[in-house]
UniProtKB/TrEMBL annotation:
The keyword Nucleus applies. InterPro entries: UDG_fam1, Ura-DNA_Glyclase_AS, Uracil-DNA_glycosylase-like, Uracil-DNA_glycosylase-like_sf. Its main location: mitochondrion. It catalyses: Hydrolyzes single-stranded DNA or mismatched double-stranded DNA and polynucleotides, releasing free uracil. Residues 78-87 have a biased composition (Low complexity). CDD domains: UDG-F1-like. Excises uracil residues from the DNA which can arise as a result of misincorporation of dUMP residues by DNA polymerase or due to deamination of cytosine. It comes from Neolentinus lepideus HHB14362 ss-1. This is Uracil-DNA glycosylase.
Length: 382
């Protein structure tokens, strides 16, 4: 976890960085924003000058710089301004320009300070949300920090606390996965995300669930649904050799979000934690993907990172998963639905659906060949 007092701009920053490193990243982004705003301003200025050639028009950058010149940059609890170093007024101006031009801040320009955030929490919230602050990936936490303070989520956390989920290190619980793995899916940074696979419930057998849908830790037998997933990959990629394990961590590291709709379950009792609040929370996770998923992927043939989501692939298997993505824009995202890979339904539309190759074809066209997922690489050692 990064230093609790650090301002985090870069979405996938998972370790403490020096101020100069972070400032450099912010400067790179804001420079690009200034260029975009200047071009837009010039076009507007040219159009206005044609209509009234004798009247001087102020550029957007003139207005931004004038409006912010008298404003001091905000400071965090650790004493660092959002600009961190150098010309703070330029950095604040650029951040505002992002809002004006793009409608919202780009992913990397959203600041987050753990120290400042925890100061906004009540004593109960500090206790109940410690797991989220300690284990959730920073790129997700800074987007969901307000969501986890809402009454429904605090109610969910009270329920889990009573069930024994009191810290990431608690042992011998009858709740799966273990607390430290509840947010394992968030190891996939939102800005590098390419594909979302939506599951329903964590596995409810001992040792099976580890926070990634359809995946099991090394040493656990491959579940039937995952065997069918392997069979489909083999049909699409004949060179694939199905592994003897069911650990999909390599996919998570390659930009695949493996998200269950409910993030916990009681041992031996499928669906036991449905209706407790997880569904509402994971809906917000999907909303974050819609807004920022793949924000740091470059476009095909370009090195430019848009800073906002330009579409990802959703693999929704089964009616339950299909409902979770029904609201999404099918022009922005590639949304592939089929029957569930369970042995009860795999032969009714999952096997033969071609989803893995379709996903890569779309990713290659949208973002270039480097964005394709290596479905065949599943290293058990990860």
């Amino acid at each position: 976890m990064a230093d609790s007092g650090a301002i985090v701009y870069l979405e996938d920053l998972e370790s403490t960085s020096t101020t100069s490193e972070v400032a450099s990243l912010v400067t790179m982004e804001t420079s690009a924003v200034k260029t975009e705003v200047t071009v837009a301003a010039k076009k507007a200025d040219d159009a206005q000058n044609k209509a009234a050639p004798m009247k001087r028009q102020r550029t957007l950058m003139d207005m931004f710089e004038t409006s912010t010149a008298s404003k001091k940059p905000k400071r965090t609890a650790s004493g660092s301004s959002f600009g961190l170093s150098g010309d703070s007024s330029v950095k604040v101006t650029a951040a505002q320009a992002v809002v004006k031009v793009g409608g919202f801040q780009t992913l990397n320009s959203i600041p987050f300070s753990m120290a400042s955030y925890t100061k906004t929490l009540s004593e109960e919230q500090k206790k109940l949300l410690k797991l989220e602050c300690d284990t959730m990936g920073l790129s997700w936490l800074k987007l969901l920090k307000d969501e986890i303070k809402k009454p429904y989520f605090i109610s969910l956390k009270r329920f889990l606390w009573e069930e024994g989920v009191t810290s990431e290190d608690v042992k011998n619980l009858k709740i799966f996965p273990s607390p430290r793995n509840i947010y394992a899916w968030s190891r996939t940074p939102v800005g590098k995300l390419k594909v979302v696979i939506i599951g329903q419930d964590p596995y409810h057998g001992l040792g099976q669930a580890h926070g990634l849908c359809f995946s099991v830790p090394p040493g656990i037998a491959v579940p039937p649904s995952l065997r069918n997933i392997y069979a489909e990959i083999k049909a699409e990629y004949p060179e694939f050799t199905p592994p003897k394990h069911g650990n999909l961590t390599a996919w998570a590291d390659n930009g695949v979000l493996l998200l269950n709709t409910c993030l916990t379950v009681k041992a031996g009792n499928a669906g036991s934690h449905s209706g407790k609040g997880w569904e509402e929370f994971t809906d917000k996770v999907v909303d974050a993907v819609d807004k920022y998923g793949g924000a740091n992927l470059t476009s095909s043939g370009s090195s430019v990172k848009a800073g906002y989501g330009r579409g990802v692939v959703f693999l929704a298997w089964g009616g339950w998963a299909a409902k979770r993505v029904a609201k999404l824009d099918k022009k922005k995202h590639l949304i592939l639905t089929s029957a569930h890979p369970s042995p009860l339904s795999a032969s009714k539309g999952f096997l033969g659906n071609g989803h893995f190759k379709k996903a890569n074809d779309w990713l290659e066209q949208r973002y270039g060949p480097d964005a394709m997922v290596n479905w065949c690489s599943l290293d058990a050692a990860q």
